[in-house]
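F.,

This is the one I mentioned.
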C-alpha cells in the first residue's frame, strides 16, 4: 500500500490545530472521504488505498515541538511524530527521515527558506498563506518547483467557503460584470499583541487580506494593475510597545477597472462575539452580493460570557460511533485539495502541469504576492507621509516590466524588476 509521508514545520495557532487535525483524519481513514466536498470525487476510488502519515513536526523551540508531537499522539490516537527543533529544524527533518511532503505553517516572513530547501530536494510543498511577502522569493519558489517537477500548493481556504462557492459558481453568471467590492477581515487583539511575536515583521493585510486577493484572482481570472495602501500604528505601539500596524487599508484596481477596497486589522476587541469579523460586498452590473461570513446565523448567549457567534462552516467536529472526533469544514478543504494533487502526481503519475487548475497553485499565489509586495512598499511610504501631515499620496503600478512606486512630487521608482501584472 502506497504512503504519503508528511512533515510539518510550524505548530502554532494554525499549524498546531487545523493542520494536525487534518493529518490525523487522513492518517486514520485516507483522503477519499473528503474529496466529494471539493468536487474531486472522481479520484476517490483511485486514491482510496493510499495511506497518509504525519511522520514529523518541527518548531523553533523544543518545548513546542514536543508538545505538538504529544498532542497528535494523545488527542488523535495516532503514532507520535518525530519532533525537531532549532533555528532551521527543517534541515534535519528533510535529511534524516523519509519525507514526501513538507507542510509549512511558520510565520509569514519565514516561508521561503524551508520551502526552497524542500523543493530543491524534490519534495512537494504545502505552504500556508501568504506564499511569501516578497515577489522575488515567489518567483524563485515557482521556478524551483518547475525545475524539480514537483507541486507547490497553498492553503487558500476561503476559496472553499460554501458561501463563496455559491457566489462565484452560481450567482456570478446571473449578475453581470463585477464593478467594485469591499472585503473586510478583522482579527482579535490577542493575535497581534500576544500570540504572534512576529507581528512587527508582517501586517494585517499581508496576514489575512491575502485570502480576499486570492479569491478575486482565482474566481474572476483577473490581474492587479494598481495598488494604494495606508495604515495606522497607534494601539500596538502605545499599549504594547510593538512597532506594528494596527490596521491597513488597501485599494487594488484589477483588469477592466474592477476595484476592491480591503480593510484589515488585528486589534478587534478580544470580547467581540465572533472569532473574527469578516464580510464582503460585491457590486455587479446586474446586481449586488452581500456576504457576512462572520455571522452565519448561529448565535448563543451565556451567562457571564455574553453573546457569541460560531462559524461551523470553517471547522467542526463530527463524532464517530466510538466518540472520537473527525473534523469537517472549508478550513481543511484547501489542504485536502493540495494533498490530492500531490497524491495524483506521486501515485497516479499525472502531469503536474495538468493538475494546476485543481488546487491553489503557486502561479496564482504569485499574483497575490505581487499585491503584497506593492502594498507593503506603498504602505511604508504613505505612513511616513501621513505622520508628516501630507496624506497618503503614494501608489504602485504593476506592469509587465516591474512594480513602480509613484509619488506626485518625485520620479517613479522601480521596486521590482520582472512581470508583475
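My design for it:
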Amino acid at each position: 500500500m502506497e504512503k504519503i509521508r508528511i512533515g510539518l514545520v510550524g505548530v502554532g495557532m494554525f499549524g498546531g490545530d487545523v493542520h494536525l487535525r487534518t493529518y490525523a483524519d487522513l492518517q486514520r481513514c485516507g483522503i477519499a472521504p473528503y474529496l466529494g466536498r471539493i468536487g474531486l470525487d472522481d479520484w476517490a476510488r483511485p486514491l482510496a488505498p493510499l495511506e497518509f502519515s504525519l511522520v514529523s513536526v518541527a518548531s523553533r523551540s523544543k518545548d513546542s515541538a514536543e508538545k505538538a508531537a504529544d498532542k497528535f499522539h494523545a488527542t488523535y490516537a495516532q503514532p507520535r511524530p518525530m519532533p525537531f527543533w532549532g533555528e532551521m529544524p527543517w534541515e534535519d527533518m528533510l535529511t534524516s527521515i523519509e519525507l514526501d511532503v513538507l507542510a509549512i505553517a511558520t510565520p509569514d516572513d519565514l516561508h521561503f527558506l524551508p520551502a526552497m530547501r524542500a523543493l530543491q530536494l524534490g519534495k512537494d510543498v504545502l505552504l500556508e498563506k501568504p506564499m511569501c511577502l516578497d515577489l522575488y522569493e515567489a518567483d524563485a519558489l515557482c521556478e524551483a518547483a518547475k525545475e524539480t517537477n514537483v507541486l507547490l500548493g497553498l492553503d487558500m481556504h476561503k476559496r472553499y467557503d460554501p458561501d463563496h462557492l455559491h457566489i462565484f459558481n452560481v450567482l456570478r453568471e446571473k449578475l453581470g460584470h463585477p464593478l467594485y467590492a469591499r472585503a473586510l477581515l478583522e482579527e482579535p487583539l490577542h493575535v497581534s499583541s500576544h500570540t504572534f511575536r512576529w507581528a512587527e515583521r508582517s501586517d494585517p493585510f499581508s496576514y489575512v487580506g491575502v485570502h480576499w486577493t486570492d479569491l478575486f484572482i482565482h474566481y474572476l481570472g483577473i490581474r492587479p494593475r494598481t495598488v494604494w495602501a495606508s495604515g495606522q500604528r497607534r494601539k500596538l505601539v502605545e499599549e504594547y510597545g510593538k512597532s506594528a500596524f494596527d490596521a491597513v487599508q488597501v485599494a487594488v484596481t484589477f483588469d477592466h477597472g474592477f476595484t476592491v477596497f480591503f480593510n484589515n486589522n488585528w486589534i478587534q476587541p478580544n470580547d467581540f462575539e465572533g472569532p473574527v469579523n469578516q464580510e464582503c460586498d460585491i457590486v455587479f452590473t446586474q446586481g449586488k452580493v452581500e456576504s457576512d461570513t462572520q455571522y452565519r446565523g448561529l448565535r448563543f448567549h451565556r451567562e457571564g460570557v455574553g453573546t457569541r457567534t460560531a462559524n461551523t462552516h470553517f471547522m467542526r467536529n463530527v463524532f464517530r460511533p466510538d466518540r472520537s472526533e473527525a473534523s469537517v469544514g472549508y478550513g481543511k478543504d484547501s489542504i485536502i485539495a493540495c494533498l490530492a494533487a500531490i497524491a495524483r502526481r506521486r501515485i497516479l503519475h499525472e502531469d503536474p502541469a495538468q493538475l494546476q487548475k485543481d488546487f491553489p497553485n503557486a502561479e496564482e499565489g504569485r499574483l497575490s504576492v505581487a499585491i503584497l509586495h506593492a502594498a507593503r512598499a506603498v504602505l511604508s511610504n504613505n505612513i511616513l507621509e501621513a505622520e508628516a501631515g501630507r496624506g497618503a499620496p503614494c501608489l504602485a503600478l504593476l506592469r509587465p516590466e516591474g512594480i513602480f512606486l509613484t509619488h506626485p512630487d518625485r520620479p517613479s521608482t522601480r521596486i521590482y524588476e520582472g512581470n508583475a501584472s
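The CA atoms of residues 183 and 280 lie 4 Å apart.

Talk soon.
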